[in-house]
Amino acid sequence: MLEINNLRASLEEEGKEILKGLTLTVEAGKVHAIMGPNGSGKSTLSYVLAGRDGYEVTDGSATLLGQDILGMEPEERAAAGLFLAFQYPVEIPGVGNMTFLRTAVNAQRKARGEPEMDAATFLKEVRARARDLKIDAEMLKRPVNMGFSGGEKKRNEILQMAMLEPKICILDETDSGLDVDALKLVSDGVNAMRSPDRAFLVITHYQRLLDHIVPDVVHIMVDGRIIKTGGPELALEVEKNGYADLIGEAA
């Protein structure tokens, strides 16, 4: 589904290379987790795939369902089926949650040549999905993420993901700042979306998220490259022993 080959990317302003020939394949129906120490390039990978400004791709390729996404604008990548859940979801003053969600859903449907979702259908759908995530009606009426707690922001983002129904979901340290209850709610929302035609790339520092969103494959990323790949047991090894031994093996 997502094919990344020899991807190299740098910070535009500094010219500093962050991704140094990263290769990765994420299959449909699978959850892949990426772990690694600070500064290894995990978040940079998510930003480059989503098309965030400030990064220059200098080599390699990234395709989603056979389409080259690196040549697309961010909104085109989203319409193609890519969703990025941020570590720190942004606040959008003056834009109501419901308005934002319906606009996003219909913009993507239009880009794919699908009919827009009418107001009644959208309202029924968003309320049902919000209930599953324990998001109350008042929260839906507020401006996007304004005054939300960390857990509310993350739940709201998973609601966005549920409404947009992407093909590849990239979660960039979505467990950051969550207490145990909020982590379980967010994880339940993610797990409810697992399906044979959708894939997940979960970026995290900690095993605790992977206790709830159990990955099929775990990758260890260091200095802009994947240095080791294994099953869920690899995350447990990192939790127990840290990264030093794995870095030593790869040296």
TrEMBL record:
Residues 2-248 form the ABC transporter domain. The keyword Nucleotide-binding applies. InterPro entries: AAA+_ATPase, ABC_transporter-like_ATP-bd, ABC_transporter-like_CS, FeS-cluster_ATPase_SufC, P-loop_NTPase. It comes from the Bacteria. CDD domains: ABC_FeS_Assembly (cd03217). GO terms for molecular function: ATP binding; ATP hydrolysis activity. It holds the Pfam family ABC_tran. Keywords: ATP-binding, Nucleotide-binding. Belongs to the ABC transporter superfamily. Ycf16 family. This is Fe-S cluster assembly ATPase SufC. It comes from Rhodovulum strictum.
